[in-house]
From TrEMBL:
It is a single-pass membrane protein; Multi-pass membrane protein. This is Zinc metalloprotease. The keyword Nuclease does not apply. Pfam families: PDZ_6, Peptidase_M50. Its EC number is 3.4.24.-.
Amino acid sequence: MSFLVTIISFIIVFGVLVTVHEYGHMFFAKRAGIMCPEFAIGMGPKIFSFRKNETLYTIRLLPVGGYVRMAGDGLEEPPVQPGMHVKIKLNEQEEITHIILDDQHKFQQIEAIEVKQCDFKDGLFIEGVTPYDQERHRYTIAKESYFVENGSLIQIAPRDRQFTYKKPYQKFLTLFAGPLFNFLLTLVLFIGLAYYQGTPTNSIEKVMKDSPAAHAGLKAGDTIVKIDNNNISSRKDIDDAVEKIANKSTKITVERDGKKQTMNIKPKKVEQKVTKTKTQTRYILGYESSTEHTLFKPIASGIERTLVAGKLIFTAIVSMIASIFTGHFSFDMLNGPVGIYHTVDSVVKTGIINLISWTALLSVNLGLMNLLPIPALDGGRILFVIYEAIFRKPVNKKAETTIVAIGAVFVLIIMVLVTWNDIQRYFL
């Protein structure tokens, strides 16, 4: 039963993170007029699909990512290549309206052609030899035209619907939208948790046994109003004051039964592991805060927690990159799908609230990792767009395709190594 719960939780967490990220790309792409032939969750063989308008939505077997296929983004390969024999249907202007790649449609008045040359991005034409006259003909592809394949009509994108021919700011927004939506997901999850749990106050709900608060004589129901010389009106004021004091002895003033009482307290120093390679020093009093449910405080709390999470993950990523140059890098710093599954298995046992909080952290991590300047990732492709905006011309297409391909191979190799490392750590 526990195994089943972990599997379901993993699928939900993975599905939500990837769906939100890829939907961000597609949301801005479609608003820029870019055609999106496919929206995929997962990689590898297709296990489920449906078509809505011009987009095919698919779920694929391997939970190692997802993608939005955008027309003219340099990553898609057209199904027609030189040397192929296909059938075409022409309109009255002798333009191609359908390129037929199967026998599942009963089109009338079609022609066979052996493709010698074709361009589905810039020139939008097919040139080839027709069997009836053995002559070479060149046909323009109509503005509204389709590939006919596997019983489906797949629209061929005209130039004005392709990523390549959009303005730099439209390309930038489309690429940045994936990480942006991950950050927004983190914000929504933290705000939702704050509304559900309430926001902490400066009153005490429970005092932990053998804690500094217990030794000082604090009790449930006390309201902390002063620490050292710092006036207190919120939980954040308490946290800030305790961090200033560190583990030194100081005075704390509470309000109990309408009267103020002052006592001595010494915060306890704790080392908390926040990432695989980073620990955080904190000072605690050892109590649980009372919470309150208000209309606007959860929003502020969600924003604050999102910023703290972003700072935490960003610092961890910078430390990881720095470790490459200092010789302290280890694949233990990274988690692949296997590592994420193992973490889900641990977190889900502590309850749904912790799983949601962890998902929020993972979402901001996914957003920041995708902004790394690696060619196959969003950050690397954004660099190409920035180059185009500065120099008023796009990067050489052949060079860009080669660089992105090298980046994709690099990411794939890293993913394989990380996955193997996770398998060795957790299962061997």
